[in-house]
């Protein structure tokens, strides 16, 4: 067995996919269902089939085996996928040139460089250079344990430490520069560290590898603090895409699933603070406004998101945008703001980190559990934004809230929330009804985008039930293939939608080497789509059931094939007689009688 096959037989697709997608078991047949990680959806259409070791999404058509899944979801090359899965499963990977192309080599080097940098920064924070940074952390109340957990570090103020370390290694100048961690000098030759004298926060990908850094300036570093940004981030590299990375997701995802909740904060320190409060399901977007990709990553692990941003104006605006994105993805959204809203309880305006530091873990957890729906928070925002003394201002405030209300999937809840809000804002109920009718009318005339979305959710290939059952039975049991395939010649299935799959099955049966992946590899795009649809939709029984099903299908296929043959022969007899070709007419008549007898014997 070659390495790829060996790897595939030793990992379970349900376990691997399950780390990225919350899967629900469907029936007792080894089928699982979840939200597709490859397209935006609110109801699950992403199927994983354990016995076939295959996945298929009915929404966007994505499908394949475990290797394809990891490649696509982690954005890895084929060799990188092999490496990742072999490392995780303790299977030694043979050193072969086909497992390494230029792309993977560069990315492999970048992962190494980041691991080296993370270690170097950590050592520097613990060493004599890190005195000031340690004092800063101490003053902000960051424990040694937290520093360890989040692998904080410190970058060389002289800007030489990492450059020197990497030059000693076997990295090429191109690899060093591509990492974004060192830069080429503008004048003269040589390199210098991109991050100097900063507190370093390693950023991991979902699998736990360091792929970038966030870096915070220290207050008095060479007096440069004022003309340097407080926070700097790694640039985008072949291993780091800002818009699809969530800080701390690698550590948070198990807790997110357990709690079915994610806490979304803004900064690295906030993540650490919330984590320290015993709430481990906390992530932050990495120095960018929240994106759709990040929201989908959240939804793969939890249904509820508590947005806990800074209570200042910038934080509130960011929260407003985040709420819209989260609602669009169909998530339940709550907002926690300390001293932010108009319903201020007199608390100081605190970010999550400072809140935990001042009021303690227990108080934070209580606040979090009591976080209210985004409506109250939005309504307070609206009251602060519009002039609530006049009817116009109140109506404007209501209109400002309306889009969020309309994102509620349930009609009754929509109406209840709307009348609630109207009461809170002092808007006449009649006006509310009016606005609702107008919005509903707009919804009834969907734009081209909505029509397109519906079209893609229909499976691309239509396959008759008889064929589907037959293919399923053949795919699910070796015994069935051995018994049925030899009695199902090619001419019987020429008109089948799935004839390509059957042909491939016959060929594989001859060589005696059936595997699902090999079958998949033999098919055209159309054949593959059909195969995945069949596989994802089936209910698998045991060998005996599958053989019985296949036998029944075979009889029906055979009967209709013979009916067609009989019609054909009768036509030939007639034609030969009309043309006066006696010999031919006799020949076809004999054939016809032979077949009629055969049918009679069988029937
Ligand atoms: Zn999909």
Task: Describe the model.
By secondary structure, the protein is an alpha+beta fold. It has 26 helices and 17 strands. The strands form four sheets. The protein has a six-stranded mixed β-sheet with strand order 12-14-13-15-16-17, with helices on both faces. A five-stranded antiparallel β-sheet has the order 1-2-3-4-5, sandwiched between helices. The radius of gyration is 32 Å and the shape is flat. 36% of the residues are buried. Mean pLDDT is 84; it is low at 341-345 and 445-460. It binds zinc ion. Residues 36, 38-39, 46, 57, 59-60, 62 line the site of zinc ion.
Provide keyphrases for this structure.
single chain; 603 residues; alpha+beta; 6-stranded mixed beta sheet; 5-stranded antiparallel beta sheet; 26 helices; 11% strand; flat; binds zinc ion
């Amino acid at each position: 067995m070659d390495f790829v096959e060996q790897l595939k037989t030793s990992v379970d697709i349900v376990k691997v996919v399950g780390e990225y997608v919350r899967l629900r078991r469907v029936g007792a047949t080894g089928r699982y269902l979840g939200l597709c990680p490859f397209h935006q959806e609110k109801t699950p259409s992403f199927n994983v089939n354990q016995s076939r070791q295959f996945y298929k999404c009915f929404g966007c058509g994505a499908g394949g085996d475990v290797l394809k899944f990891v490649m696509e979801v982690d954005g890895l090359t084929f060799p990188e996928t092999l490496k990742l899965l072999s490392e995780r499963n303790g299977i030694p990977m043979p050193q072969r040139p086909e497992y390494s192309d230029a792309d993977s080599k560069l990315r492999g080097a970048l992962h190494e460089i980041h691991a080296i940098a993370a270690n170097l920064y950590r050592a520097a924070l613990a060493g004599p250079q890190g005195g000031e940074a340690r004092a800063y952390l101490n003053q902000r109340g960051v424990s040694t344990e937290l520093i360890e957990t989040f692998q904080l570090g410190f970058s060389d103020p002289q800007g030489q430490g990492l450059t020197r370390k990497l030059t000693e290694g076997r990295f090429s100048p191109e690899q060093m520069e591509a990492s974004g961690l060192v830069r080429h000098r503008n004048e003269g030759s040589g390199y210098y560290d991109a991050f100097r004298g900063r507190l370093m926060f390693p950023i991991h990908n979902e699998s736990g590898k360091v792929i970038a850094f966030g870096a915070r300036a220290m207050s008095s570093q060479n007096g440069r603090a004022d003309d340097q940004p407080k926070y700097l981030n790694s640039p985008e590299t072949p291993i780091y895409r800002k818009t699809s990375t969530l800080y701390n997701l690698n550590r948070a995802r198990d807790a997110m699933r357990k709690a079915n909740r994610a806490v979304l904060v803004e900064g690295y320190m906030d993540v650490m603070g919330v984590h320290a409060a015993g709430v481990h399901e906390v992530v932050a977007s990495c120095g960018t406004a929240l994106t759709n990709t990040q929201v989908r990553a959240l939804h793969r692990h939890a249904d509820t998101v508590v947005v806990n941003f800074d209570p200042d104006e910038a934080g509130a605006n960011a929260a407003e945008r985040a709420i819209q994105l989260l609602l669009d993805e169909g998530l339940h959204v709550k907002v926690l703001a300390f001293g932010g809203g108009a319903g201020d309880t007199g608390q100081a305006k605190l970010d999550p980190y400072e809140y935990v530091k001042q009021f303690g873990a227990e108080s934070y957890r209580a606040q979090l559990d009591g976080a209210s729906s985004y409506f109250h928070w939005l309504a307070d925002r609206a009251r602060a934004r519009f002039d609530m003394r006049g009817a116009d201002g109140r109506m404007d405030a209501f209109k400002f809230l309306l889009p969020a209300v309309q994102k509620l999937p349930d009609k009754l809840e929509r109406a209840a929330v709307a009348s609630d809000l109207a009461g809170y804002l002092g808007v006449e109920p009649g006006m509310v009804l009016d606005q609702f009718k107008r919005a509903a009318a707009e919804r009834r005339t969907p734009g081209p985008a909505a029509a397109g979305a519906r079209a893609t959710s229909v499976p691309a290939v239509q396959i008759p039930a008889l064929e589907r059952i037959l293919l399923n039975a053949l795919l699910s049991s070796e015994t069935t293939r051995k018994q049925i395939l030899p009695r199902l010649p090619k001419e019987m299935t020429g008109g089948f939608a799935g004839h390509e799959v059957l042909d491939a099955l016959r060929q594989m049966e001859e060589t005696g080497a059936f595997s699902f992946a090999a079958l998949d590899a033999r098919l055209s795009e159309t054949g593959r789509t059909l195969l995945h649809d069949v596989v994802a939709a089936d209910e698998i029984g045991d060998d005996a059931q599958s053989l019985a099903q296949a036998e029944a299908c075979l009889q029906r296929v055979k009967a209709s094939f013979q009916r067609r043959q009989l019609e054909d022969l009768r036509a030939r007899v007639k034609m030969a007689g009309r043309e006066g070709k006696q010999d031919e007419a006799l020949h076809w008549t004999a054939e016809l009688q032979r077949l009629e007898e055969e049918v009679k014997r069988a029937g």
